[in-house]
Amino acid sequence: MKNSTLYQGEIDVEGLLQPETSLELKLLENKAFRQGLFWGKPRYGHPEGKIVFHIREILDNIERLNVTDEIRQQLRTITFAHDTFKYLEAKSDYRKHHAFLARQFMEDYHTESAVLDVIELHDEAYYSWRHLFMYEQPDRGHSRLENLLQRLGPNRQLFYLFFKCDTRTGDKNQAPLHWFEADIPHIDLVDF
After folding, report:
1. Sequence-ordered list of residues with C-beta below 8 angstroms from that of 159, at least 6 positions apart, any chain
2. Cβ atoms within 10 A of the Cβ of 51, count?
């Protein structure tokens, strides 16, 4: 019999996301987390609509990577959490930005700073690119990028892998990823 706490409507969340660890199962059983999985309507960048479908796309991309089991599991944890709190976001207050909320939530479940940092910072490369190239605010873009790289420290590769897996979903603009791969030093490029 199916676990009703993992369903909403006709979506079998457990079947779709195929949790592999006790952490992933705990996340899917949490009411606030589960609520976030069903947020979203089709929109630019996310024609899939609901977060749960976006997570599935990223998980598929992770499977295309040739990485260690440890990196793969880190990427899966980041993926499960990264956008799940968009439904609570208030764009005018960073403490209510979905990535910050996701990090706060995950601190009760996970202690690895590399994973928590990537969850919190996962959109920062895109925001840096946007300031540099869309808004023509080079000082702000470079400052934001420098802060990102400084915060990531030795976890730049983990961030890049997630950024690539996330950006290669839906109908997202690929220009930020191409820029990151061309201009950011000390990352080992991957292709899939």
Report:
1. 117, 118, 121, 122, 125, 148, 152
2. 23
Q: How far is CA 177 from the centre of its chain?
A: 14
For 77-105, the DSSP string reads HHHHHTTTTGGG--TT-GGGSHHHHHHHH
Which pLDDT tens digits describe the chain residue by residue (192 residues)? Answer: 344 445 566 899 999 999 999 999 999 999 999 999 999 999 999 999 999 999 999 999 999 999 999 999 999 999 999 999 999 999 778 789 999 999 999 999 999 999 999 999 999 999 999 999 999 999 999 999 999 999 999 999 999 999 999 999 999 999 999 999 999 999 999 999
Q: Is the dihedral of CA 78, 81, 86, 91 positive or negative?
A: negative
pTM to 2 decimal places: 0.94
Domain ranges of the chain: 4-183
